[in-house]
Amino acid sequence: MEYAASDLTQRERYKVLTSFVLPRPIAWVTSVSADGVVNAAPFSFFNVFCEDPPLCMVAVNRRPDGREKDTLANIQRAGEFVVHLTDEPLARAMHETSGDFPPEIGEPAHLGLTLAPSSKVAVPRLADAPFAMECRTWKLIDVNGDRQLIMGEGIHFHIRDELWDREAMRVHMDRYHPIGRMFADRYCRTDDRVVFPPAEGAKK
């Protein structure tokens, strides 16, 4: 079975891509409005792409009615945001922040999520997240006028203490239980893991 991308509608292309590019990491992004309202929203068209400088990218499309999402409006205005990763204890709260909230209602306040000050940006972070990356906007790329690719430079990291071996610079995988996005309302756990021996390459 095959398709030419040009033969599919936008919705059909979305369904093909999100059905097979699995699982996807979730950027749980906090930003602040001009009125000081803290917004939190999840995005699964997301990943990190570089370590020097540390760059991540989040794709933010418009709402179905054409309105600009609060996250994009806030980032365009302030040029900074915080990206969090989500684990199992926070998964339901993360999902709930994907609901439709008016700009004057902040998801963290409405859902009782604890905020903490960031170190280098004005945007607060979600205090209970296993990992948070304070970001400044590195580049915005417009896609067809209805979507923005937000590239952020990570300038400060926060890690939940029990998840990190500071000496080895490694995560304690037995303690870290991230959640991945599948499609629609489906998510996945990541505890069923496979370890392979080092790849041997071509033998002489």
Automatic annotation (TrEMBL):
Pfam families: Flavin_Reduct (PF01613). The keyword Protein biosynthesis does not apply. Gene3D superfamilies: Electron Transport, Fmn-binding Protein, Chain A (2.30.110.10). Keywords: Flavoprotein, FMN. Residues 19-178 form the Flavin reductase like domain. It comes from the Bacteria. The keyword Nuclease does not apply. Its cofactor is FMN. InterPro entries: Flavin_Rdtase-like_dom, Split_barrel_FMN-bd. Belongs to the flavoredoxin family. PANTHER family: FLAVIN REDUCTASE LIKE DOMAIN-CONTAINING PROTEIN, FLAVOPROTEIN OXYGENASE. This is Flavin reductase family protein. It comes from Bradyrhizobium jicamae.
